[in-house]
């Protein structure tokens, strides 16, 4: 039986990955510090056999090390996300996304883990020059979150090069789906819109809504992590995207509701669109869930956002003040 460890395994993507690994017959260890109201995700995983939970923070290598005993696969998804908090608290993002990744890599190396798969971010491309965006595109992060996630990727691939650790980095594009964050900082569009729909408020659409995103459903992303672990490829970074790009106006159309437009934000691309030829060629992976099907799944679970913050133009303006202050012209 393969023993798999998932850091951040009680989180959005991590919980789906943990369930997939269990269904594949793996013995799964979830390492998480249970921030951001993750207990419900953990409860969902705990319904399955072959699951162990360890409460640990990746910044604390002493508490982290015991979780790696006899581990075969390591999936490193733990980290801090969101743009504005990374601008306001760059030290926390560095300690978690960079030092924490170093700790995970060292624990994996010292434990003799067979493979590590790192969750990188497509935000590291910044405002891309080419669409669909290939892995060879320039790295030009616009804010500390993107920078620290790329630094984690560089560490991971360097450990593969120097120490012979089999490792793959997956650059994730606009992941959405059930169990996505329902609290905390202003951020992902789905959480914002679903809470607004539940409360009967208009959707706060940035700019003119014609900007597009490579929305990739979370179960497809989990399958990409599994494919990476099962492969013999190492030392590579690969995009994980849907194979398409979809406008915010199309999302609003699928969700159904009124619209309120708010100012466009600096440092955001008008389009995200992954070139997925590399991962399809090397791993045989391709997304299966259509955008329409994925949005349907979200609407079926819309009550999950009943306690989420309900944003309006005024509260968004206050929450994104640092964004405009530091990233504006």
TrEMBL record:
Which CDD domains does the UniProt record give? UDP_AE_SDR_e (cd05256)
The pathway it acts in is: Bacterial outer membrane biogenesis; LPS O-antigen biosynthesis
Q: Which residues form the NAD-dependent epimerase/dehydratase domain?
A: 4-241
What domain of life does the native source organism fall in?
Answer: Bacteria
Question: What is an example of a Pfam family matching this protein?
Answer: Epimerase
User: InterPro entries annotated for this entry?
Assistant: Epimerase_deHydtase, NAD(P)-bd_dom_sf
Read off the PANTHER family from this record: DTDP-D-GLUCOSE 4,6-DEHYDRATASE-RELATED (PTHR43000)
The family assignment reads: Belongs to the NAD(P)-dependent epimerase/dehydratase family.
This protein's name: UDP-glucose 4-epimerase
What is the native source organism of this protein?
A: Varunaivibrio sulfuroxidans
